[in-house]
Amino acid sequence: MDHRKKALLLGDYTHPDWHPLQGVDAEISRIFHDTMTVQCSENRNMLLQENITGFDVCICYMDDWKGKVSPQQTAGLLSYVSNGGGLVIIHNGISLQNRYELKQMIGAKFLHHPPYAPLEFTVTEESHPVTEGISGFTMEEEPYQFEFGSFAETKVLLEYQSEEGPKPAAWAHRYGVGRIVYLMPGHHVPSFAHETYRQLILQAGKWAARYV
């Protein structure tokens, strides 16, 4: 019998705007192989309450900049997290912000990004389970920039260096009795080959799914 926890990975195979799930799905499945089974889907109805409740964590890689998530799917995800589910949002998954209720839950919104470039990442919260044991690293990435709302008490875990100074690159907080992590890197498959970033994803998933 498989005693691993269950993760749901949502993204886009057929009509991604910029970031296809193809290839990324295999990398994330390998990262969690020893701790969680990963079910990959582009069916947004997996967010409905009756479908998502069977999972310990939802990993969002949805490229949903046009806002295709319905009010019913939004309600399902909000209920899931507030009642104890885990949510890990990677890179473009923050496109969930098109639903204002989800933007409030995430705690920040994407504004824009300068060109893809080598970025230097620094851990700002060394004692958090998501970043514990992880040291600074460099990788090429899209430097997303965000605006934070005053409605969520979020904790910035990672920053990257920009010409304007340090910018947030990862954060975590609780929502109801659930747990949310956002990780900025993840533009394409090569992003997921970086060993330190793989460890960060693993620890984010384990914290969100209440392994720790």
From TrEMBL:
Keywords: Hydrolase. The keyword Hydrolase applies. SUPFAM superfamilies: Class I glutamine amidotransferase-like. Residues 34-208 form the ThuA-like domain. The keyword Endoplasmic reticulum does not apply. It comes from the Bacteria. Gene3D superfamilies: 3.40.50.880. InterPro entries: Class_I_gatase-like, ThuA-like. GO terms for molecular function: hydrolase activity. This is Glycosyl hydrolase. The lineage of its organism: Bacteria, Bacillati, Bacillota, Bacilli, Bacillales.
